[in-house]
Amino acid sequence: MTIPATIGAPDSGSASAAHAVPVGRARAIYRYILRNPAMMGGLAILFTLFLFWAVGSIFTDVSDARPLSFRPSNPPSAEHWLGTDRQGKDIVTVLIIGTPQTLRIGIIAGTVGIVIGTLLAFIAGYFGGVVDNAIRFVVDTLQTIPILIVLVAIAIAIPGDMTVEMMALIVAMLAWLGPTRVLRSQVLVMRQQKYVELARLTGMGDLEIIVKEMIPNLMPYIVANFVLAVAGAILASIGIEALGLGPFEANTLGMTIYWNIFYASLLNGWWWWWAPPIIIIVTLFVGLFLVTRGLDEWANPRLRKRV
Amino acid sequence: MLQHRSLQVGWSVLTVEYVLRRLALFFAVAFVAATVNFFFPRLTGQDPILQKLAQLQIQGAGVSSEEIDGLIETYNAKFGLDRPLWRQYISYLGDTARLDFGQSISFFPTKVTKMLRDAIPWTVGLLATATVMSFVLGSLGGALLAWGKAPRFLHALFPVFFTFSAVPFYLMGVVLLYLFAFQTDWLPLFGGYGTNRIPEFTFGFWTNVLKHAILPAASIVLAQIGFWALGMRSMMVTMQGEDYMHQAEAKGLRGPRIFFRYALRNAILPQTTALAVTLGQVISGAILVEIVFSYPGVGTLLLNAVQGFDYFVLQGVIFTIIITVAFAMLIIDLAYPLLDPRINYRNE
Fold first, then answer.
1. What is the pLDDT of residues A147-159, one digit of tens each?
2. Residue B347 has pLDDT above 50, yes or no
3. Which among A193-197, B100-104, B291-295 has the top mean pLDDT?
4. How far apart are CA A150 and CA A145, in angstroms?
5. Could you tell me which residue, A42 or A129, shows the higher pLDDT?
6. What fold characterizes domain A44-303?
7. Do A267 and B175 count as a contact with CB atoms less than 8 A apart?
8. Assigned domain for B114 exists
9. Does a structural domain hold residue B172?
10. B243 in any annotated domain
11. I need a labelling partner for A131 at 20 to 30 A (CA). Which of A61, A78, A247, B86 fits?
12. pLDDT at B66 over 60
């Protein structure tokens, strides 16, 4: 999987046209989503995952995901819809607990990433000069380094037991790179535009211009890069967990993959164990991918002409 | 003719200054990699390497106590607390520059360098082939889709690839493994070559190696084609409104010539930049593919090092991967003027 590093870089010029939302905001959004099939499909997929979790958590008992709860490695049955794993956990319960844990890692890391990224992008792009050069150099250098490798180096250096929150913070450490790079170039373009110049002429301060004029216009990019950062963080966390550096006590999707690799579930023919987490992860990524494509279209109206 | 001239122009603008600047960035990355290796284990205020060695000494698992003593001694001599941190750092940088990563703890006394030398060809072979294949197939497919003259099967096939591009390589690998090795045993389940074979330069051995490489390579290619096709398609669509495209048409050039010389050639440039940017992600994904297939490359080496807490191997792998990606990017950047003669590095 290759997560696109940029949203809307090629069309930066036309991007910032103000989105005048007419009366009836909710209806306008609704109508827009109908016009944007990628966005609609993505949201529908993510909503299905949400339903799986919501309905599932009503009917499951958290303690069924403890090791040695049931006889291990049993195929699906009326009692255990997806069977049990090698450690005797009920697989449906593991997935219902694990999916939101994995999402939480992504959302925490994505939020940290987008906040720091937006801040740095404004500092670099708006004020320029030495600070801009320094930030750009750091981002350029770090971007040539495979992120997973650096995160592995960090994760293994941390002593003691890993938790889901620690995992999120580790992944968050580099989640600002993408947003900083993309948003900085957007800020650079936007700074030159007439309405920003006009705002400056009317005597608005820098901070006021950034908050009142630029951030609202950057919103499509910020949202799109947030989704990208979440997807990237989830991908990285699953990678680290699959390598055996994750939170062993937790039931995240990545840890489920790790135990599958550890017990060679594929070679043992335990398809009911390895297939469901893969289906959920793939569904999640396809959903996020479609949403980013939908957001991309929102950020770059020119794309609409492209079939 | 055109090709030939641009090639000359390309090389002539590749100034010494640009090459030097690009080399400087490469060494900056190497420096960061070595620094990461040195400081991360020390960030927590403890010394995980020493702890592991001490733990091994108590357990005595696999390695004799004298050997551990030797390791600890070497370790202390190298990084010991008898010297200030900056002296340790300098000597570590020196060792890294000489590519001396020490000895493996799990496979004592094998040199880390030797383990890396054995693993790297597998990873580079797999990754280079898969990346080139998906780049070429994806770009060509995406270009044809935008050109409007694509065969019908492409229109049916590529939406599938677009969806695949959201799937992590290694999960694609698990599914392929199940379908083509576990259920049907058409292809081998794991490894780089059959367990009953000795590596030698014979036809039989190489076909065996090839057979083992098909599934890992396919999982990377299938998950990547869509990414390149998407980028290429949108570039080609933008390209079609350009003046020089109308000009080429007005001159009455034949379709294929316009396609390859005018549209494709221009649209491929951002793709090349994207190749350089995504290389790090691709290798991260490939590492996990190797683990799924127990492929004898750097990824499996990394997994074993992580699980055995083989810190010196780990540092070697981290440094090697970072350096390899940086080197590949250096090559791409230096080759760029061949593709785009307009780039004049002197005025950059």
1. 888 888 888 888 7
2. no
3. B291-295
4. 8
5. A42
6. MetI-like fold (1.10.3720)
7. no
8. no
9. yes
10. yes
11. B86
12. yes
B225: pLDDT strictly greater than 90? yes
Q: How many CA atoms lie within 13 A of B226 on its CB side?
A: 25
| Number of structural domains in chain B | 2
**Segment among A193-202, B87-96, B192-201, B249-258 with least mean pLDDT:** B192-201
Domain of B331, in residue numbers: 1-106+308-348
Contacting residues of B for A274, CB less than 8 Å apart: 174
Q: Which residues does chain B have within 8 Å of residue A262's beta carbon, measured at their own beta carbons? A: none
Considering only CB atoms, A159 lies closest to which of B46, B281, B321, namely B46
- Which residues of chain B from 256 to 275 reach within 8 Å of chain A, CB to CB? 270, 274
Rounded CA separation A117/A120 (Å) = 5
In percent, how much of chain A has pLDDT > 90? 29
User: Which has the closest alpha carbon to B63: B110, B112, B100?
Assistant: B110
Look at residue A253 in the predicted model and tell me its pLDDT: 92
Say which CATH number the domain at B187 has.
1.10.3720
Q: Which two tokens stand for residue B338?
A: 């061949």
A142 has a pLDDT exceeding 60: yes
User: What was the ipTM of the complex prediction?
Assistant: 0.79
B268 half-sphere exposure, CB direction, 13 A CA radius: 21
H or E segment at B25? helix B16-43
Put simply, the answer to whether A152 touches B175 (Cβ < 8 Å) is: no
Which residues on A lie below 8 Å from B303 (Cβ)?
243-244
Tokens 């190696």, located at residue: B209
